[in-house]
Design a protein that fits this description.
By secondary structure, this protein is α+β, with helices and mostly antiparallel strands. Helices cover 34% and strands 29% of the residues. The relative contact order is 0.21.
Length: 140
């Protein structure tokens, strides 16, 4: 009975090593969070705020959401590939389907004019977490 327990324990301890050994690591395909990147992707020729500015200029606040007083921050995640393309737009935290859909639409419709990020001198895929804020004007 004791030998069987030792054998089972040994087997369980080996599983993580087998899984790690079976996974091939390729740096070129690794998606890197923006905080680990040396040169972050740039939208067009602008600075770090250029993409936020573009999104704010092109988003359309849904009329139905305005009438219902719906506002808030929609949080998206997307990747800027090593080729400078914006891909994999995902909703991380929504507010309301009307605002969520508009946030996704406007980000997906952005021009594909990104300068890719770099890590260790090579172009790299970089993941962004990006807020799209919908705020109604305050009535004074």
């Amino acid at each position: 009975m004791m030998n069987m327990r030792k054998l089972i324990l040994l087997f369980l301890l080996m599983i993580p090593g087998v899984v790690a050994f079976g996974q091939e690591q390729k740096e070129e395909q690794e998606v890197i969070p923006m905080t680990y990147i040396k040169a972050v992707p740039r939208f067009g020729e602008g600075d770090a705020n250029a993409f936020s500015k573009w999104v704010n200029e092109h988003k359309i606040y849904p009329e139905e959401a305005k009438k219902a007083g719906i506002q808030g921050r929609v949080t998206l995640r997307f990747t800027i590939t090593k080729d400078g393309k914006l891909t994999n737009v995902e909703l991380l935290r929504g507010v309301h389907p009307l605002l969520d859909e508009e946030a996704i639409r406007v980000v997906k419709s952005a021009p594909q004019k990104w300068t890719p990020g770099r890590k260790k001198g090579k172009f790299a895929d970089v993941t962004y977490v990006f807020p799209v804020v919908f705020q109604l004007p305050k009535d004074d």
